[in-house]
Design brief:
eight-stranded mixed β-sheet, alpha/beta, binds N,N-dimethyl-L-histidine, three-stranded antiparallel β-sheet, globular, single chain, 9 helices
């Protein structure tokens, strides 16, 4: 099924019946990726600059834990900006950035290769949350994963466990360097997802704008509002698109009814405790190693070793 077809089907399904929810992966067309890059520079959005600070401050210790000369795989590489902070100390032999947004990825990979002559960069366009076909491992190089940004938090708990299980298998004999956002004051979280410039709102609404571009729908964006709040019981930020009024929108020949106040759940962003994350990783088969954090304990970066032999190996 093409990307367009699965977007259409998933959107129709989400609007047909409760729970009205769709995967956040549909945010990331070229425009969504551009908006996400802007979010990362917002004063309220602390995760990016905090994680960058941790990677910069501790890159040498990370290289010691991870080992040099790895076959480095980044899940959801986007602009390949964060890996740049590690390259000098980590000195991987090869870099395989995986991302769903093809054009954005190719441009970022080309730029990275230009800036790092001698580093082999092989972009892989695909959905890393599903099974992705990677080139065979480099002989003699440990396969190491890099999954920054707390994108792990955009999975539900079961999906996160499934992703980590798959990663532990893919990276056996190496490991995973994983960024995870930490539980904190809800006001700080609320501000990060409700920025004053409205960039996060535009990012959320881009899902409907993308449907207009790709599926020929006629969503009027000003008839929806962006809603983002912290659900403390679930330890997650939720994002929704809420209809301001009763309306009907045609989606691929199907009339989709919206009641006033009806919400389409577009994203969860789970927050973790350090212990909670380590326990999840252990459950997936990793051996949790060192953890690095910032002085305010806003964000964490974990080294998770993937044993050569996993317990569920036959
Ligand atoms: C990509 N992901 C980790 C971001 C997050 O914080 O959950 C996506 C995002 N959504 C709104 N702002 C940023």
């Amino acid at each position: 099924m093409s990307g367009r077809e699965s977007f259409l089907l998933d959107l129709q399904r989400a609007l047909a019946a409760p729970p009205h929810a769709i995967s956040p992966k549909y945010f990331y067309d070229a425009e969504g990726s551009r908006l996400f890059d802007r979010i990362c520079d917002l004063p309220e959005y602390y995760p990016t600059r905090t994680e960058r600070g941790i990677l910069t401050r501790h890159s040498r210790e990370m290289a010691e834990a991870v080992g040099r000369g790895a076959d480095l795989v980044e899940f959801g590489a986007g602009s390949c900006a964060k890996v740049r902070l590690l390259l000098e100390d980590l000195r991987p032999r090869r870099f395989l950035p995986i991302d769903i947004s093809g054009d954005h990825l190719q441009a970022a990979a080309a730029e990275l290769e230009r800036d790092h002559p001698g580093l082999q960069v092989l972009p892989v366009v695909g959905d890393y949350s599903a099974e992705v076909e990677l080139p065979p491992p480099l002989p003699g190089a440990r396969r190491v994963g890099f999954f920054p940004g707390s994108t792990i938090g955009n999975f539900g708990p079961a999906e996160a466990l499934q992703f980590l299980r798959r990663a532990a298998r893919l990276l056996r004999g190496g490991g995973l360097l994983l960024g995870a956002d930490l539980i904190k004051d809800p006001d700080v979280l609320h501000a990060a997802y409700n920025d004053a410039q409205g960039v996060t709102a535009a990012f959320n609404l881009n899902l409907l704008a993308r449907a207009n571009r790709e599926l020929g729908t006629r969503f009027e964006l000003d008839r929806f509002w962006h809603s983002a709040f912290y659900n403390a019981a679930q330890q997650r930020i939720e994002m929704h698109l809420v209809s301001r009024e009763r309306q009907t929108v045609q989606v691929g020949g199907v009339a989709c009814e919206w009641l006033e106040g009806q919400a389409l759940h577009t994203e969860n962003s789970y927050k973790f405790s350090i212990e909670g994350l380590r326990s999840l990783a252990s459950q997936a088969g990793f051996r949790p190693g060192p953890v690095w954090t910032d002085p305010q304990h806003l964000f964490s970066v974990h080294w998770l070793e993937a044993p050569e032999h996993l317990e569920d190996d036959a």
